[in-house]
Write a structure and sequence with these properties.
The chain is an alpha/beta fold. 51% of the residues lie in helices and 9% in strands. A hairpin with a 5-residue loop joins strand 1 (2-4) and strand 2. The termini are far apart.
């Protein structure tokens, strides 16, 4: 079996082309082939094919497309027999092939080998491999395939191809063969007109081929385009090359100095990649007393290392999500400080303010303005349009190794323009699980839960100013109160340390008494350190129907099922499932084995407060429905056949 992704999606079996069926069926094959030998979940396939516009029949559609692909790829397979090429796995499907039989995977491998040989000085062997890699292309990647995944994959692979063209052309220039890459570079410039490195190479190739006038025309075209589209002048490398052509200075040596080509990845003498701008290092300081998270840190490092090793031209993106107060920012900053030495061009940081107490979330354009400012772009030179800012941002980071930390993200749409292409790394935090960013953009998602009791105790004891030294029983009571949320633990520790004159037992009793628990887990004049305010911002981000469900669930203290939730809120089965999923994705509810749900203890206390926002009569009706057992006697409550008010009236 051989599969082509670098052009129209096609497949061959024993040398004969396979009819792959309708476009979306080919899209399923393209997605599975792009992740060959990995299990791809059904939800990820749905999101990759339809994004936000998924129909009600999307899941059934996926199963239909998979069945069609199995018939096409394994025509001799007995009906009902398990597939050997396209296999069913728990939760999804897997295409089992040698990666060398998928042209995109082969291109990535050969390109990586070419880069390695070039770095080792084996120029001729490297050029042969670059030519082999580029020969695999048969047109635009994923041509004719619909869906968000194909659109993003098309862009990623095009960028990787252009990188290979640049490196191949630079190798030919070093080898004294300037005429050979001119045609390929001309086509690449037409595909990506704002990519300065391509234009630099084309101008140099023309100049060295004796076509000085044409080289100058390309430079002038470049200057006009950058001025018109982005409001900027060409970079220093292009301007320097232009001056040399005009002055008639002797040509450079055939082998440019390392780092001379814009974005050259070979080792270079230390220099400021953004000219006169200091190397940015914007990471906030680490949280005092950080503890635990050993598994999460190891998992994130492993993910990023593997992404960098296997996809050298792809920017690895890791998104850490979790409940408010669970310590997402502290974890990501700890990771960022560990990784920063791997990114010699600096570190950028932006607070996207999705859950800010006093301000709205940043738009992508506003975030790009901050990022470009960190890269030395004066505010007066910022393009007005978001797309132009994103283009300038990616151009400045192209070929650089930069760490970008985006804290408190609101949505995938807010993030996408902020993700550069190439050798940088992006770390993100957010309270919502951004499944679309994983399906469409290949981001790695890691959900962070509460700290274990042992780590919670270490954090509490370490920050309490010695007040809990040797006080195991008091520590255990306070750990149980906080439920493993680092923010709550820090608030309690600060309260203990700030009141040394009050006996420890009195303070512990005050913190752990049942009533008004959230009133004690706050710092006056700092809403960001108030557990109630932290939960309030998550609640405020809910759609109205999910917020209503949250309020009704606040009437129930213990674990509950979807049926219990439907009874309390008087919603049908489909709506109940959807609303519970929304609450889980916002980390205001925990889903457990056996289709059970429960609140974190502190979130449950907040939900109980929110329940009081419902009119007393509505609360009483909900509790009456629960007490009378209307779930079992009246299963049609979950069927969606009419309003619950009419059903209850009929039952009475």
């Amino acid at each position: 079996m051989r599969i082509q992704l670098l052009g129209p999606v096609r497949a061959w079996r024993n040398g004969a082309e396979v009819a792959l069926g309708p476009p979306k069926q080919r899209a399923v094959l393209a997605l599975l082939a792009s992740r060959v030998n990995d299990v791809v979940g059904v939800e990820s396939i749905v999101d990759a094919l339809w994004g936000c516009d998924m129909p009600q029949t999307a899941v059934n559609g996926v199963h239909t497309y998979v069945s069609g692909l199995r018939r096409a790829l394994e025509p001799g397979r007995p009906r009902g027999a398990a597939g050997s090429v396209l296999t069913s796995e728990p939760g999804g499907y897997c295409l089992r092939l040698d990666p060398a039989d998928v042209d995109a995977a082969l291109f990535t491998r050969v390109h990586g080998d070419a880069r390695r040989l070039r770095g080792e000085g084996a120029a001729e062997e490297a050029l042969r491999l670059y030519e082999r890699a580029l020969s695999l292309w048969r047109g635009e990647a994923y041509a004719g395939v619909p869906g968000p995944f194909a659109a993003m994959g098309r862009t990623r692979l095009r960028d990787l191809r252009l990188t290979a063209v640049e490196e191949w052309a630079a190798g030919l220039l070093e080898a004294g063969r300037p005429a050979e890459p001119v045609a390929e570079l001309t086509g690449a410039v037409a595909d990506e007109p704002l990519r300065e490195k391509l234009r630099w190479l084309l101008i140099l190739a023309l100049y060295r081929s004796g076509r000085q006038a044409q080289a100058l025309r390309v430079y002038e075209e470049t200057r006009r385009l950058l001025s018109t589209e982005l409001g900027i002048e060409p970079g220093a490398e292009l301007r320097s090359l232009h001056r040399r052509i005009l002055s008639g200075q002797p040509e450079q040596p055939d082998r440019p100095e390392p780092g001379e080509v814009p974005g050259d990845h070979r080792p270079a003498a230390p220099r400021n990649p953004f000219h006169d701008v200091p190397r940015p290092f914007q990471l906030p300081p680490l949280a005092r007393g950080f503890t635990g998270r050993v598994m999460e840190l190891a998992l994130l490092e492993k993910m990023l290392d593997e992404e960098t090793a296997h996809h050298a031209a792809t920017t690895p993106v890791a998104v850490v999500d979790g409940a408010g107060g669970v310590g997402k920012t502290a974890l990501v900053l700890e990771l960022a400080h560990r990784l920063v030495d791997r990114y010699p061009d600096g570190a950028l940081y932006v607070d996207l303010r999705a859950t800010g107490q006093r301000s709205r979330p940043l738009s992508a354009a506003e975030a790009l303005a901050q990022l470009l400012g960190g890269l030395g772009v004066d505010a007066s030179r910022l393009p007005a349009e978001t797309a132009a800012r994103a283009t300038l941002y990616r151009s400045l980071l192209h070929g650089r190794r930069m760490l970008v930390v985006l804290d408190d993200a609101d949505s995938a749409d807010q993030l996408r323009p902020l993700i550069p292409r190439g050798t940088s790394c992006v770390l993100v935090t957010g309270r919502r699980r951004l499944a679309g960013l994983a399906a469409r953009d290949g981001a790695h998602l890691v959900t962070v839960g509460p700290l274990a009791d042992e780590a919670s105790a270490r954090l509490l004891v370490g920050l309490s100013g010695g007040r809990l030294d040797g006080q195991d029983r008091a520590t255990a009571r306070l750990v149980a109160l906080c439920g493993g949320l680092p923010l709550a633990l820090r608030v309690v520790a600060d309260g203990l340390a700030a009141r040394p004159e009050v006996p420890l037992g009195v303070l512990v009793d005050q913190y752990t008494e049942e009533g008004g628990r959230l009133d004690r887990l706050m710092v006056h004049d700092d809403a960001a350190a108030s557990m109630r305010c932290v939960f309030e911002t998550s609640y405020a981000a809910l759609p109205a129907d999910a917020a209503r469900m949250f309020r009704y669930l606040g009437l129930h203290r213990g674990p509950f099922t979807a049926r219990t939730a439907a009874t309390l809120a008087a919603t049908d089965r489909v709506a109940t499932g959807r609303l519970l999923s929304v609450l889980v994705s916002h980390h205001l509810l925990q889903e457990e084995a056996g289709h059970q749900y429960r609140f974190h203890p502190l979130v449950g206390a907040y939900a109980a407060e929110c329940a009081l926002r419902e009119p007393p009569a509505h609360r009483q009706e909900a509790l009456d429905r629960l007490r009378t057992g209307s779930v079992d006697p009246y299963p049609w409550l979950l069927s969606g056949d009419g309003g619950w008010q009419n059903i209850c009236a009929a039952a009475l």
